[in-house]
Specification:
The chain is an alpha+beta fold. About 45% of the residues lie in helices and about 20% in strands. About 25% of the residues are buried.
């Protein structure tokens, strides 16, 4: 993503089979999906803050190569604040209570999305920005959001939960100065929040957790 003054430019490039599927309209193109969903998201979730999408452009469109561009407005300008990535905010705060708040925030978004048949297949702490002073939250990068039939609910929900789980563990892995006991409480909190969805942990998820907790 490139920043020019108050405009962010995000390019999407596809080659080979991915490009062909998009060209034949067998798969959604992420940039176009983000642009088309923006107004729906604002309408369906009027109390939430979404990064303002300004324009969408197809730069190249062939069976072998697809390139698109989405321009968005700097959230500092849109919402008159000084926003930082939520993950960086958590690392700087180094406070397990802040992580508990982040998990509750994520779950609120996830649950509310489901009520209106939205699914975010790559939903994690990198999708939020926060103004540390005002605590205002902005939702960014919603190109992986889908509005899908009910029969795909379990699959898409599983992808979303695993995405958050992985990024949460990555953040905790990077925090050498946080106590292992605090990290365990944070992971246990997340498990308790999503337990009723009955999403099974894969072997690689278990190994990821062991690395966070410094277990062999």
């Amino acid at each position: 993503m490139f920043k020019k003054k108050n405009i962010y430019k995000k390019f999407y490039n596809y080659k080979g089979i991915k490009a062909l599927r998009i060209f034949l309209k067998l798969s959604k193109e992420k940039g176009e999906n983000s642009y088309n969903l923006y107004e729906d998201l604002k309408k369906d979730f009027p109390t939430w803050n979404f990064m303002k999408v300004l324009s969408y452009e197809k730069i190249k469109n062939s069976p072998f190569s697809v390139k698109t561009l989405v321009c968005s407005e700097n959230v500092d300008k849109t919402f008159s604040g000084n926003f930082v990535e939520y993950s960086k905010y958590l690392i700087n705060e180094n406070d397990k209570q802040k992580f508990f708040e982040a998990i509750d925030l994520w779950y609120k978004f996830e649950y509310t999305f489901l009520q209106k048949n939205y699914f975010h297949t790559d939903f994690n702490l990198n999708n939020f920005m926060i103004d540390p002073k005002t605590k205002n939250i902005v939702f960014i990068d919603f190109d992986d959001i889908k509005k899908e039939p009910h029969f795909k609910k379990k699959l898409l929900l599983t992808q979303s939960i695993r995405s958050f789980d992985a990024t949460l563990k990555d953040i905790l892995l990077s925090m050498d100065n946080m106590k292992i006991s605090d990290k365990k409480e944070i992971l246990d909190k997340f498990k308790s929040v999503v337990s009723h969805y009955d999403i099974k942990m894969r072997p690689k998820d278990i190994e990821h957790e062991k690395r966070v907790l410094n277990e062999k």
